[in-house]
Structure formats: C-alpha cells, structure tokens
Amino acid sequence: MTKIVNHWIGGKPVASAAGASGTYGPVTDPATGAVTTKVAFATVDEVDAAVAAAKDAYLSWGQSSLAKRTEILFRFRALLDANRDAIAELITAEHGKVHSDALGEVARGLEIVDLACGISVQLKGELSTQVASRVDVSSIRQPLGVVAGITPFNFPAMVPMWMFPMAIACGNTFVLKPSEKDPSASLKIAELLAEAGLPDGVFNVVHGDKVAVDRLLEHPDVKAVSFVGSTPIARYIHTTAAANHKRVQALGGAKNHMLVLPDADLDAAADAAVSAAYGSAGERCMAISAVVAVGAIGDELVAKIRERAEKIKIGPGNDPTSEMGPLITKVHRDKVASYVTGAAAEGAEVILDGTGYTVEGFEEGHWIGISLLDKVPTTAKAYQDEIFGPVLCVLRVDTYDEGVALINSSPFGNGTAIFTRDGGAARRFQLEIEAGMVGVNVPIPVPVGYHSFGGWKDSLFGDHHIYGNDGTHFYTRGKVVTTRWPDPADAPSGVDLGFPRNH
Ligand code: NAD
C-alpha cells in the first residue's frame, strides 16, 4: 500500500483537500525506482491555513518565557537523539544516501538544536547606564512573528534544522515547506516537536511545489523567509520575498574548489578529494567538484584519486556495505551522465566514466558510477555548471596565483579548501579567496553550529549566513529603549525645542 505524507498544521496532520489541483505528488525510492509514497501538494488555502495557525500560536509563543522555550527544546533534543536511526531510515528510503551518511546529517542538525537550547545567552540584551543624567539605554532583540523555511532535497532533516530551532527559540512561529522529493523526515520532526510539548501551531509543515512557495513569498503575515536550494531558485526567492518587504536569506548552489599545492601531503589530499567529491553521490552543496592541482604534482595526484575512487562500493543506502547510493531521480541521473558523456569533446581527459552503471537486483534504481575528469578546460560545461553528482573535475595550473585567480573567477563562492604544508600560503589563501567557508587541509568544512554557514556571490543572496550568531540576528529585530526616571531633587524640566542633547 502506498504511504501518504500529509501536511502538519496546528499540531496535527492535515490531508490535502480532495479535488484541488495537484493534490498529491509521487515520492520514489531512488534505489528501486518504485513510487512508495504520495505527498500532499498544498493549495493556496492550505498554505493560508498553516500561516493562520502560526500567527495564532505566535500570540502566546512570542510572549513565552525563555525558560519555557528552552525546556521544550531540551526535550526535543532528547527525542531527536533517541530517534536518530528512525529519521535516518526515512531519509535513506526517499533520498537514497547511505544510512551512515543520513545519521551524519541528523547529528549536524542536532548541533543547531544544541545551540538553540542555549538561546538565553544569545538573546541577552545590552544596557548602558547613566548615558545622560538619570538616563539609561538598553538594546533588546525581539521575534519577528511568522517565519517560513523552504528547503532542498539533499538534506531533508539537517537543512530544516539549520532554521527552525533558532527561529522558534527566538520566539517566532514557523512554516516549513520541505522538498517534495523526500518529505517524510519533516513530518517525523513535527511529531517529535509535538511530543516534546511544543504548543500547536508553533511549527507547521506544508508540502508541495511552486504554488506553496509562491504563496509563502507573498503572504502578508510571513515576516521572513529562509531558503536553501539551487542558485536560480535562490535568486528568485530573494527577489520576490524582498519585493514583498520580507527579510530574506537565500542560500544557493555551489562549485567548490580544492587547491592542492606542490608541498601538500598528496595521500591526505587524495583521501579528502575522494571523500568530499563522491560522498552522498556528490549531492552536497559542500561537495568538492573541482580539484586545482598546482605545478608538477598533477599526474601523481590524479593517480592517487583514481586508485581510491575505483574502490568505492555503490549500492542501496540501506545495505551497510554500500558507501555511495543512487541519485535522487532518473532525470537528474541522466543530466549528470550528460556532463561526462560530453566532457571529452570539450577537451577533458576522461579517467573514470561512471555512466551506464547499474546495481544487480536493483536495475530500475537511479544509479551512476564514479566519474573522474582530468585536464578539464574552464570552458567545459562539466566545469562551469554545478553537476550535483559523483563527477570530479581536475584542473591544472602552474602557480598558486593562477589557482587563486581561477577559483575567484567562479560565479559561485560557497566553500573552498587549500591543501599545503606552507602556513604562509594557507594564510594568504584565507584572506585572498572569495568564498564564505574555507578549509585548510580540511575538505570544505560545514562549520559547527556556533559559527555560521553561508557562501558568497551566487551561493547566497541576502545579508545573513544561516545559524550561529547570524541565525539569532536574522530571526530577531532590534529595539533600543531610552529610559529616564527623574529625581524629585531635579530642576523642573521645562519646554526646550532645541535638538535633544545628553547632559
Ligand atoms: P531546488 O532549488 O530545486 O529546490 C529547493 C526548494 O525550492 C524545494 O523546496 C523546491 O520545492 C522549491 N522550488 C523548486 N523550484 C521552485 C520554483 N520554480 N519556484 C519556487 N520554489 C521552487 O533545489 P534542490 O534540487 O532541492 O536541491 C539541490 C540544490 O540545493 C543544489 O543546487 C545545492 O547546491 C543546493 N544546496 C545549497 C546549500 C547551501 O547551503 N548553499 C545546501 C544544500 C543544498
């Protein structure tokens, strides 16, 4: 029997209205190619119902004490911890990534819940006493109201958790529109939040596509929008939400480069390149998709990468021996394959060709093998586009400066890494490179929760990175209160039309 995933509005599951356009959409198990689930697609009325529930809940949640909010978040953290495996299984069944990888994304999401549990420290205001005679000034931060999150398929648990723990800890109420390709994890999270005692309406989920997203972008009661997804949609979300006077942070796609200097530990660099390029089948915004080899080390580095990449075991995500699973859809698999097929004609050397790969017993799965392209020209589409699959491009340059210029000419600026033993070069790289996250002998790190995550250029539209201090700032607005309590001994105040001065 096909499983059904409904919306979550006002603290309970809500089925999609029968007869409405696009009422349900299919969810596929990428390892078998079979449709296993039907997910509700929200109409405008259903989005409005979720926003209304969130607005209603905000009346009391926005006024609730920090102690109450954090007590619920601590209980949610314990439930999340106890349900790691259950959530990871849902992710693997709909996304396809291997179980250990799915567990990893739950763990990284949990880090942001940890941060939200300590929100009282982050929301501490500032007070200046006696700025003028008997006058004090305090700065406080207050919640915005109803805020929305729109998230991608590749991290169905972690990316929503980059957003809602901080948002609700700050006193906002939340409407999540997860990816329609793997919606089950978000419903499980909604159930756990309810079990933790979160009041009805503080966290809502509407499933669906552009119809649901567009309604959130234009709804007058939605005060802020957090988005993570591809660059064209991020740009659209930023422009549309801003035109509707909303606060917006829209994280986009990536083409992450790893610069390998001639003095680097080449075994460590090859290990890092293979792990970061092919982990999660390359469907990570922090995947390494371009290695830039400096000087004469190119041939040796490519040989080491090849030797490791050839050993990767590809199979269903729920098989504990699999290291890499299938891609999200057949359409996406075919698009990824087209970059490899076209690479030679564009001047690249195809070292490993993963097209046409299949797994015995799972012939209808969305499989593709490992691809490694060497000496890729910067004009090749395989280099220019975000492929979002297990395809690694190697580019050759003669000098550090040439490598930095190449990386900085990319329109993307999410993350980048340098591998070297030269501290001076690494320091220069940190300062000169145009990207939001930098790894030194670390392949594109996802920053810990108490730092923030975000790229530059076409990888992020808006002023705020996500989570960390930026998260608290994004989900609150500032207020400055100037207070005077006159003393009976003070001289009478009197009228003064001059510009107020501090005495
Ligand atoms: P996507 O842009 O196709 O979809 C993201 C969300 O937008 C989904 O909820 C989807 O339903 C919605 N959406 C899709 N088309 C829309 C439209 N025309 N109008 C309104 N809403 C629309 O992205 P995806 O394929 O789900 O995810 C992969 C992309 O996300 C990659 O480009 C990856 O780099 C990026 N990503 C970026 C980060 C980051 O932190 N920068 C993190 C994870 C993923």
Automatic annotation (TrEMBL):
Membrane spanning stretches: none
Entry EC no(s): 1.2.1.27
Gene3D superfamilies xrefs: Aldehyde Dehydrogenase, Chain A, domain 1, Aldehyde Dehydrogenase, Chain A, domain 2
Protein name: methylmalonate-semialdehyde dehydrogenase (CoA acylating)
Lineage: Bacteria, Bacillati, Actinomycetota, Actinomycetes, Kitasatosporales
Enzyme class: oxidoreductase
GO biological process terms held by the UniProt record: L-valine catabolic process; thymine catabolic process
Alphabetical keyword list: NAD, Oxidoreductase
A molecular function GO annotation: methylmalonate-semialdehyde dehydrogenase (acylating, NAD) activity
Highest taxon of source: Bacteria
Organism: Streptomyces dysideae
One Pfam match: Aldedh
Aldehyde dehydrogenase domain residues: 25-481
PANTHER family: MALONATE-SEMIALDEHYDE DEHYDROGENASE
